[in-house]
């Protein structure tokens, strides 16, 4: 696997597609909530929504600026991105649990793993910010890793909770496959960042489910639920 420089136009559409998926999934319960008869959201959920929306905007703007060769501006926005990433993680930690096919204690591993993967990929993106080929791929993987809350909303909307874990695995797998195809199309090879990072994201879903049902995690999960209540 060689070091590839995927055509810049891939990262713009990727940012838009990932953001559009998230916005569409949260349209009914957040962005267009005022059109329905749903109860008002609490301050914490509004804060989380505002912070993550700001993250999506910065993510899209940065990819557009890079595509236009405006390298100076993304570097300036980098500081804001770091701050927003930290806020996204901190705000997500306090979001109420929504079990799907698991008990409340078991389900705690799902959002915790999502947050951990997002934080890890963003951190790697920051570390390798001066190596564009690595930086861009890590940031895309960070977005793929954090698709699970949006996917959960679509699962609930379409009433397919019995297939929850399978869908949660398929959605990131499709986005990772798109990334791999984009690399292959650009240079007849795929970048190791996508291969390893994508495999970690996809494999995390069956691993989460296995760990969630173990006795040790049950104890940890019960402690987390008590602490969050």
Major β-sheet annotation: none
Order of helices and strands: HHHHHHHHHH
What is the radius of gyration computed over CA atoms, rounded to a whole number of angstroms? 18 Å
How many separate helices?
Answer: 10
**What is the first-to-last residue Cα distance?**
47 Å
Q: Which geometry do the CA atoms define?
A: globular
Query: Using DSSP, what is the number of strands?
Result: 0
Gist of the model:
By secondary structure, the chain is mostly helical. It is built from 10 helices and no strands.
Explain this structure.
By secondary structure, the chain is mainly alpha-helical. The chain has one domain (8-228). It contains 10 helices and no strands. The chain has helices at residues 11-31, 43-67, 72-93, 104-107, 109-127, 132-145, 148-157, 164-187, 192-212, 215-228. The chain starts with 10 loop residues before the first helix and ends with a helix. The model is unreliable at 1-6 (pLDDT under 50).
List the helices and strands and how they pair.
Blueprint lengths: L10 H21 L11 H25 L4 H22 L10 H4 L1 H19 L4 H14 L2 H10 L6 H24 L4 H21 L2 H14 L1
Keywords:
229 residues; mainly alpha; globular
């Amino acid at each position: 696997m060689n070091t590839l420089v995927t055509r810049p136009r891939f990262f713009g559409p990727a940012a838009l597609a990932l953001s559009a998926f998230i916005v569409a999934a949260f349209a009914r319960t957040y962005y267009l909530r005022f059109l329905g008869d749903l109860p008002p959201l609490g301050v914490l959920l509004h804060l989380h929504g505002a912070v993550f929306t700001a993250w999506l905007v910065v993510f899209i703007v940065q990819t557009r600026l890079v595509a236009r060769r405006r390298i100076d501006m993304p570097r300036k926005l980098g500081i804001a991105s770091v701050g927003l990433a930290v806020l996204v993680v901190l705000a997500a930690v306090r979001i109420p649990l929504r079990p799907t096919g698991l008990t409340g204690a078991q389900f705690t591993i799902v959002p915790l793993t999502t947050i951990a993967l997002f934080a890890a990929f963003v951190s790697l993106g920051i570390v390798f910010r001066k190596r564009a080929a690595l930086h861009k791929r890590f940031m895309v993987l960070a977005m793929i890793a954090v698709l699970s809350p949006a996917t959960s909303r679509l699962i609930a909307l379409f009433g397919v909770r019995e297939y929850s874990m399978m869908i949660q695995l398929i959605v990131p797998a499709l986005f990772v496959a798109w990334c791999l195809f984009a690399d292959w199309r650009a240079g007849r090879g795929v970048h190791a960042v996508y291969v390893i990072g994508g495999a970690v994201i996809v494999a995390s879903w069956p691993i989460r489910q296995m760990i969630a049902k173990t006795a040790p995690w049950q104890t940890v999960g019960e402690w987390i639920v008590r602490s969050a209540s």
